[in-house]
Structures are given as structure tokens and as C-alpha cells.
Amino acid sequence: MVVADGKQLLIYDVELAQVTVAPFDDSVSASPALLLSGDRNVREGFDVVEAYTVEGLDWVKLTPKTGGTDFSSILIGFDGTTPRRLELVDGLNQVTRIEFNNLAVNPELGDDVFTLDVPAGVDVIGGEG
């Protein structure tokens, strides 16, 4: 689970029983969080290096403009203007694939959606949790 409230980015790994907390600042300008935040121009943090069509999706390959990121490239597969797949390639060429289903564009969301209640017994790394 990934939760961002504009101040912190929290990543909860259920299997590891661990929450990683990082400040939501300029350090996320070249991270997948930027792609999901919707409040910045993607070209500020990424270069578009390739565009192609495969398996009925229009793909865009992005690379971070700055070094020191966890990802060497990010691929986004679109069905029209709707993102359907996200592939994150790390420095060891391991790929994390995320598929978007039942997507709702610009829904009304309450502030509680951007809060993570950390379960008892879960380790919190960084930030205030």
C-alpha cells in the first residue's frame, strides 16, 4: 500500500510488516510517486525516451533526469488516455509490474484516504510514521 499526504510518502509492505516513511519533497521528483501525484509536470523529473504500441496498449518509457533514484526506467501502458499498466525497472533490471483495474478518474476523496493507520507490531522506518 502506498499513501501520500503531500508531506510524507508511506509505503506499507504487509508481508514484511514494515512501513517506510519518506518526506514528500523534491526527492520524489524522479520517482513513481510523481507519476501518481498528479500535481507536477512529469517532464520535470523524467525524460521520455521511447513510445511504442504492444499488446493493444500505447507504451511510454521514461528515465529519471537525476541520479540516485531506485529506478532505471518506468514504463506506462495506456489504453487511450487511461493508464492500465506500470512497470518499474530497478538498477538490477528487476521489474515490478502494476496493473490498474476498475480505475476511477478524479473521484471525490475524503482526507482520511491519505492517512495510514499503522497496525500494531509493524515496524516504521524513517519519518514519524
Q: Can you characterise this structure?
A:
The protein has a five-stranded antiparallel β-sheet, with no helix packed on it. The model has no long low-confidence stretch (mean pLDDT 82). The protein is built from one helix and nine strands, in the order E-E-E-H-E-E-E-E-E-E. Helix content is 5%, strand content 45%. It has 129 residues and is mainly beta. It has one domain: outer membrane lipoprotein receptor (LolB), chain A (Clam), CATH 2.50.20. A hairpin with a 3-residue loop joins strand 1 and strand 2. The two termini are 14 Å apart.
How do you describe this structure in short?
The chain has 129 residues and is mainly β.
How many individual domains?
A: 1
Determine the CATH topology: outer membrane lipoprotein receptor (LolB), chain A
By CATH, the architecture is named Clam
Give the helices and strands as they follow along the chain. EEEHEEEEEE
Percentage of residues in helical conformation: under 10%
Distance between the termini: 14 Å
Query: How many DSSP-defined strands?
Result: 9
Major sheet: size, sense and barrel closure?
5 strands, antiparallel
- Principal-axes shape call: globular
Provide the gyration radius in Å: 16 Å
